[in-house]
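Let's do one together. I've listed all components of the complex below, 1194 residues spread over three lines.
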Amino acid sequence: MSMFEQLAKRDQVFEFLAPAASPVDVRHGPILYLEDVNVSFDGFKAINNLNLTIDDGELRCIIGPNGAGKTTMMDIITGKTRPDTGSVWFGSRHNLLTMTEPDIASLGIGRKFQKPTVFEALTVFENLELAMAADKRIFPTLTAIMKPEYRDRIDEVLEMIKLKTLRDKPAGILSHGQKQWLEIGMLLMQKPRLLLVDEPVAGMTEQEMERTAELLTSLAGKQSVVVVEHDMGFVRSIARQVTVLHQGSVLAEGTMDQVSNDPEVIKVYLGEEA
Amino acid sequence: MASSQTWLLRPLQERSTQIFLGVLFSALIVVTFLHLFMPQDSALHVSAYTVTLLGKYLCYALLAVAVDLVWGYLGILSLGHGAFFALGGYAMGMYLMRQIGDRGTYGDPVLPDFMVFLNWDSLPWYWQGFDMAWFAFIMVLLAPGLLALVFGFLAFRSRVTGVYLSIITQALTFALMLAFFRNEMGFGGNNGLTDFRDILGFNLRTDATRLGLFIATGIALAIGYIICRAIVTSKLGRVSIACRDAEARTRFLGYRVERVQLFVFVVSAMLAGVAGALYVPQVGIINPSEFSPLFSIEIVVWVALGGRATLYGAVIGAILVNYAKTVFTGVMPDAWLFALGALFVLVTVFLPKGIAGLLQKRKKAQDDDDPATAQEATA
Amino acid sequence: MGILRSLLSLRLASLLALLMAIAAPAFSQTEEDPGQALLANLADASPRQMDAAIEAIVNSGDPRARSWLDAFGNNRLSRNKDTGQVVVVLRNVGRDWTIADPLTGENLGEISRRELDRVNINNAIRGKLEGVLAMLDLYSTNPEIQRTAAEAMMGKVNETVIEPLNNLLAQDLPARVRDRLELAVAIYQLEQGDAQAKADAITTLTGSLHSRARAALNNAVAGDDPAIAASAKAALISIEQKLKMNRAAETLYFGLSLGSVLVLAAIGLAITFGVMGVINMAHGELIMLGAYTTWGMQQLLPGQPGLALILSIPAGFMVAALAGIAIERSVIQYLKGRPLETLLATFGISLILQQLVRTVISPLNRSVTTPEWMSGSLVINDALSLTLNRLYVIGFALVVFAGLMLIMRRTRLGLEVRAVTQNRAMARSMGIKATRVDIMTFALGSGVAGLAGVALSQITNVGPNLGQNYIIDSFMVVVFGGVGNLWGTLVAGLTLGTINQILEPWAGAVLAKIMVLVMIILFIQKRPRGLFPQKGRAAEG
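Okay, and this is what the predicted structure of the assembly comes out as:
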């Protein structure tokens, strides 16, 4: 019925004719919405009634002690782990729990792993090429041709992540920090609506960290960014909104100052006595 | 259309493919020349026996290329590729069986000898159509392709990879071997299919047909090599390597890893089927021993010796090992399994990149000595 | 007929008294052994007089009567043409036959066969003789002989023995003997008796699992009397149900037996594959080494298969464990973290080991003797008997499993193994020598393979291909059960064994095996990590 009604409105671009690039419906505000999510591994509750909302264009930092469920949360959003109960929505149209990892990725959720994961046997350029937003089905991939505009786009990103000189070197020879950047670069190539970034500055020098902070803050607004990080200095430098996870659920949420003065958070971070 | 042509012909612009094809075709021409034009008593004469032996090696080489495609580039160690090889071989064997017609021992115009022997009164449904060459040749691709499709679909969908997949592929070929040993299967049981007469009207026992088959195998190897090369140099090839090295990452980039694996696996199985189909008329028999797990794992050691993820290494490995096997089994048959066993151990421990790895190392050393190329590389 | 009448006239008690009273020494004193006359009488008898002659022997109550009649039935009773003496032929091969005195049992040496004149017997007499002999045995005081005789009575009852049998049943008898004889009589009654007797017989036969009882009932179903046929049919149905249960029990037993073999073969693999992540394709050949150790031990201790087998348990463990250590040190340690290469290299080792056995020992199968206490079977009832060797293997598998569980759960080694499995770097930093743990684990897994070989030598042929036949199955068990889980291996092994045995009768051995393989492939679709998967982030790696 609704489809028929839509067809009748001739002044509108039909939904099924709209470009598939950005099908995410964020008219109602949040781009990511987790409600009452629970996961347990062999009786251990990794995620416990987790509720989390990320607004479109927001830069959110998530902190929490080890085992708070940060990585598991990312696994759930990207479809790697299925929760026992709860719901996870991307915009107001896409139920992520019914989708596979590649579907979620194609929808516009990019993820950087805790341990930098790049394709070591491929060159830096090829790593970015594979990440590039494109038709990723078998035959289009088989017959894909490197067009000049693709090359330009890759070079642009190479510039951003400062790996231009290493363009044709295998990614395996990069330093830890460079791999982190390459992975962030791959995220950028994907043109995602939402970036999930797990510990982006681990193993980086002070200078590299600054540059990463710059990069991530510049993304916010156009894209939504969720950063999981241990380095408090780094979090302070980029964070507007911080969520503290503890034992699989949200302990506190607010600005960095609010959160760091929260007695509950202090207790969790500094131990029971404090 | 233009793009599909480009991707398939792209390998022809590569230096390594040009060298490979050059060597292959020169070898074909030289062998043909020596066989046809050298007098029988000349030391340089290549006998029909040797031509067929070389043809057999080329079949193995194509099989090895197929295995290298999935193992080298996709990281899937298939211990069951012999099954695809054998299925292609059986499809060809069924065609050759039907070509015998009433010239068999029992003179039945339709039923192969073994069916008459088993008192079967009619041809099973799955033997229908194999009297037509085109049908049989399609089945050469379809039978292994379908098995790979179904098996791969089930395995990759549930993300069975690594050693699990290897063991399951081994179980697959083992199960098929047991099945084909049964007379009730209708594939000649223990003895398999044999006593072939002619192919496409040419008598299989004449030297000319043998030479023709040898050349056909060489061309099939060339085409198979180009197809594999085209895949691995395409973006899909790089995605395959991505799947091999970081499966989860590839998935999070939006690629359907299981489909990539399935596509490459099916292509590889079909190539193996073609190798089997060319093998059967040359050796004159196909029986369930081609399904044996030992044969499948032997293929892997050819590839390992030659060097994985190079394709040409697989060809070198297949020819070397099989030449060694021919020599050993002639001189001291008992020692062959010792040698093969030792080869498994030595290659994996001391030569993980195979012969191709050695070649590349030498080439690299040369390049480093050459300041011009060194500069070019850093530029 | 006459013979048995007279037998009947002899009451059991008096017969026994007679047997005891007339002891052999009594005869040796007398100048003329009465046996001599009895035998001469038998030898001289015309076919018509034969009955009477046999009757005389039986009635004499002579303890040697059985051996005489036995020899007579077997054509071994002959007469020396010269002396007229009746002799027993001990060996009737060649020109000269060995003979003995039937009275004293004394060996009389060899004599030309031409000198002997066989005491003739016709088939009618021989048939009767069987019944007579069986009856003689039933009176035996030796419970073993008595039981065997009762067993032999099944379906052999005819009009001649029925009366003495009924007579015997009136006496005090061991339960098993009574049970058998009642059945035997019932079978006869069902065939020959009047309507009432037939009805009674069916009541007796109901529930019996003996094949002859079923045959008799089947005949009765086909008989003229509709009432009898109906009740026989009912009895058959109840028997059929009981049989089904027994068949199910038997299938289960064979399944558990095959399953325990699979568990034995796979559990060592579960340790090396599951705990260390090492694919050892030479595992099957370690099993083979264990089996050959048993064979070698029996060669060293000829005539004492039992002792050799028991000694083989530690020896097989040691041989396989040492071979395992050699494999680990020479190859596997260099291939850490490269499971596919490990698979290939160990496959090479398996080829070498196989060929080594073929070259050094023989490409042919070697037979390993099963000690007496392991052969034979445990008879549960007429339809169900459990072969002892398989029963031992089941027990052995369970003991080995329990032992491994203890080692992994309760010992320092087990703790260290689990620590290294979970976090190698951390374990090392806590002072655990990871290399030593690797060696020990591998030795343990290999040693268990050796134990499997010792067990397998008792139920299958020992040959160079022994290991090959089990390696794929073993991997299937480990994959099915879930890697790194010993319980999973146990459950998976027993399950697969049982499923295989259930499928086998209607699918055939080969097809059953194929179906099991296909089933596992499909199963992995549903549960890629086996029956008992490891969960959590660690398992994702």
